[in-house]
Amino acid sequence: ILAGTDVINPCGTGLGQALQLRSDIMKSMPAVGFGNFLLTLLIAAIIGGLVGFFISYVTLRLKQEWYLALVLLVGGEIVRIVVRGMDDLICSHNGISGIAQPFAFIGEARTSAVLFMLLVLAIALIAYWYSEKLIRSPYGRLLKALRENENVTRSLGKRISVARAQIMLIGSVIAAISGVLFAVNLGFVNTNDFVVTLTLDVWVMVVLGGLGNMRGALVGALLITVMDRATAILAIQMNMSGITLEFNYVRFILFGVILLLMLRYRPQGILPEPTLTTTAHDVIQPSQASKASDQ
Question: Are 83 and 188 within one domain?
Answer without folding.
Answer: yes
